[in-house]
Amino acid sequence: MQLTIIFREEDETKMLQHNLQIAQDTTVYEENITSEAINLMKELISRPSPYFHEGAIMDFTYSWFLKNGMNAYIHEYYEPKITGFKGENVICEITGESDGPIICINGHMDTVNLCNGWSKDPYQGLVEGDRIYGLGALDMKSGCCASMLAIRKFHELNKRFHGKIIATFVSDEEGPYGLGTNALIEDGILENVDFSIIAEPSDAFNNKSFPDVSLGARGGYGLEVEFFGKAAHAALPDYGINAAVDAGKFMCELGKIDYIETAFLGKGVACVIAVESDGGACSVPDYAKVKLFWHIVIGENEKTIENYIKDAIKRANIKSTFKISFRDAPTDGSKGFMPFIVAKQNHFVAAFLESVKDTCECEASVSYFKSIGDFNYLGSRLNAPAIIFGTDGENFHAADEYATISSIVKTSDIIYNFLDKVLSDNSNSSFGENSLSVNGLKVC
């Protein structure tokens, strides 16, 4: 039996009108969200927020959530041991009608200090084509902007859902200790989180095209090596032990270290960030200090770093004695930034990658962050998976920093798509499987 379907002319007209209406609605949405993204970015950029000076932008962010009908509060913290800093984080919590996954969205509102060389006003939020310029535009006010718009959309459209969103907009990520996120963890605010999204500019830092998702990051420690020699007159250097020369020999050996290499994070690396020594006007220096930042991978820690240093000093064949000291930290948890990796097969990760594909109509590239940040705290201390995904742009920590407006909009849409996918009443209740084995390593 054959079934013949006949489309009348009026049916074709209705279908055409329906498709046209969808296209028009899509265009209107894109124009509105783009305008909103630009306006919000201008507000964020116009408020200078170098680390330790984030009060104005925190006040704005808190007020923005309240004006948009969401539950937000200021989380205050105090670090008395080293910095004496009193800081603030803004937290927005949206809770569903029943138990479900707890999703953390994290971003930092602080920036590095203003550098020289800007050809644009760093606080205007100048728009040129698809670019919006400003200090912190890429790192990471654009990621915060995208997150804020995604959370607002979820709040407006998803009145019934299960689980919880904890959105944290923190201070002092660019500072020496990541005090804001560290305080969230130590105060127990993130204790039951199942999955974290950190909206740092993943593709820009990894030199990839948008969209790029980082499923882990190297870790790192700050430390110093002191060298103790013997003073003598500069006319008779052989009578002394030159601590500066021995420090130089040690630094030359750092490039010869045979680092541990891992499948996902590659190798760690030691970087000299400062050197101090002074023999006065005419003396052999009896003291030198080399400051280092040492990036590490899984399998490396303080002990392996000490062994690397001792081996390098042995090869250098120096005469000075030495002392290794790791940077003092506010708390035990903030002594170092521990490396982490996340299994691509994790339910939350798979859902996020699917949201990228749904939104961008392409697969995301997968990478692993080479440096450190608050994501190390979230990825290594919560016993839950954390991913890094953010906007596109260039010149972070440099003059004429910018983010692309189109990537801000896409990032917002992807985060919303993911939240809707895992928290809506129609989502799969099996979300929550956190740990898997990757090449013999247990990872979140």
- Strand order, biggest sheet? 1-2-6-3-7-17
Helix-strand category: alpha+beta
Overall number of strands: 21
- Helical content band: 25-40%
Radius of gyration: 26 Å
Largest sheet: 6 strands, mixed
Low-confidence stretches: 435-442
Q: Ends: how far apart?
A: 56 Å
Mean of all residue-level pLDDT scores:
92
Strand content: 25-35%
Helical element count? 10
Query: What is the 3D shape?
Result: elongated
Summarize the structure.
The protein has 444 residues and is α+β, with helices and mostly antiparallel strands. The protein has helices at 9-45, 55-67, 137-157, 179-186, 202-206, 243-254, 302-316, 347-360, 374-381, 405-423, and strands at residues 72-79, 85-95, 98-108, 127-128, 131-133, 162-170, 195-198, 212-217, 219-228, 261-262, 266-267, 269-277, 287-296, 321-326, 340-341, 365-369, 386-388, 393-394, 402-404, 436-438, 441-443.
What's the SSE blueprint?
Layout: H1 9-45, H2 55-67, E1 72-79, E2 85-95, E3 98-108, E4 127-128, E5 131-133, H3 137-157, E6 162-170, H4 179-186, E7 195-198, H5 202-206, E8 212-217, E9 219-228, H6 243-254, E10 261-262, E11 266-267, E12 269-277, E13 287-296, H7 302-316, E14 321-326, E15 340-341, H8 347-360, E16 365-369, H9 374-381, E17 386-388, E18 393-394, E19 402-404, H10 405-423, E20 436-438, E21 441-443
Parallel strand pairs: 3-6, 3-7, 7-17, 8-16
Antiparallel strand pairs: 1-2, 2-6, 4-5, 5-19, 8-15, 9-13, 9-14, 10-11, 12-13, 18-19, 20-21
Helix pairs in contact: 1-3, 1-10, 3-10, 6-7, 8-10
Explain how this protein is built.
- The chain has ten helices and 21 strands.
- With 444 residues, it is an alpha+beta fold.
- Helix 1 packs across helix 3 (137-157), helix 3 packs across helix 10 and helix 8 crosses helix 10 (405-423).
- The longest helix has 37 residues, at 9-45.
- The model is unreliable at 435-442 (pLDDT under 50).
